[in-house]
């Protein structure tokens, strides 16, 4: 899911702590701040810090003066050969090509298992807004091709496209049958996306809180941090890429349920909206001397079910008889593009 969605989910989870409501009523938003921060923290660690320290075995660095698609194809094929011959995980970094302060040479990589080759095509020059510069579409019409030593299996539909800012990374993991599994952004959702890391962070902050304010503040901080950090991991499991849920007990990412993509509008909107309703409910039920009373199901009916049914009915009337196709990208591809758009 998107960053703001994770943030609101963390705040919503924090609001279930009676101590968070009590502190907020006294003018102290500490637990709500902790909830929102921990809700977005796993992605912040990955995209803002960890990726800059991650080691890659092969850096594919095209020449910006004389870009050659064949060089890129040969380097990727070489990385595949290393993974096959040495039977080990190989990390590959596709380096972006900067042409100026606001211009980047775009190129794309396709792994064709039917023909057993990798194809590289240089696209147009784009600006930092990823808008193609007119007249550069066919600047480099040649296509680079190189044979692959084995099949490289992509279990997601993220596009291997390199353009602005930082280029993506791919991991080549040997499988038992001799093929390679391609992992997009191997540094993402690794150790940071773990329930155990959330618990450890809660222990560390709780220890500081214990020294500063005693045991009560310590366990309240621990529960808030572990729960709000954990909800991020759980939400990511609904997508395709999954997370390394119990690191360091587990070493690999557990595949997601593939129910949604992180960039899908409806799941993100519903998560934020339900989070707002839950925050409202938790604030309401701890207020003394309320003059108007309602139950949780009443709130859900008025705030969620009835508007949802109305929206579905209007959508059906407006689109009946039409085949509405929605183009989707992979969850991690959506996150990568969102990160690049933010200028990270």
Characteristics of this structure?
5-stranded antiparallel beta sheet; 344 residues; 5-stranded mixed beta sheet; 2 domains; 10 strands; globular; alpha+beta
Task: State the distance separating the first and last CA atoms.
Answer: 18 Å
Please list the strands of the largest sheet in the order they lie side by side: 1-2-9-10-7
Largest sheet: 5 strands, mixed
SSE series: HHHEHEEEEEEEEEHHHHH
Structural class: alpha+beta
Mean pLDDT: 90
Number of domains: 2
Would you report the number of β strands? 10
Helix content: 40-55%
Rg result = 24 Å
Net shape:
globular
Task: Please give the oligomerization state of what you see.
Answer: single chain
Strand content: 15-25%
Low-confidence stretches: none
Question: How do the strands and helices of this protein lay out in sequence?
Answer:
Elements: H1 3-14, H2 18-25, H3 30-48, E1 58-60, H4 69-86, E2 90-94, E3 97-98, E4 103-112, E5 117-127, E6 143-147, E7 152-154, E8 160-162, E9 169-174, E10 180-184, H5 195-213, H6 215-236, H7 265-285, H8 296-319, H9 331-341
Parallel strand pairs: 1-2, 7-10
Antiparallel strand pairs: 2-9, 3-4, 4-5, 4-8, 5-6, 9-10
Helix pairs in contact: 1-3, 1-6, 1-7, 3-6, 5-6, 7-8
Could you characterize the architecture of this molecule?
With 344 residues, this protein is an alpha+beta fold. The protein folds into 2 domains: 3-49 and 193-341, no CATH class; 58-184, no CATH class. 45% of the residues lie in helices and 15% in strands. The protein contains 9 helices and 10 strands. The strands form 2 sheets. The protein has a 5-stranded mixed β-sheet with strand order 1-2-9-10-7, with helices on one face. Strands 3, 4, 5, 6 and 8 form a 5-stranded antiparallel β-sheet that branches. The radius of gyration is 24 Å and the shape is globular. The model has no long low-confidence stretch (mean pLDDT 90).
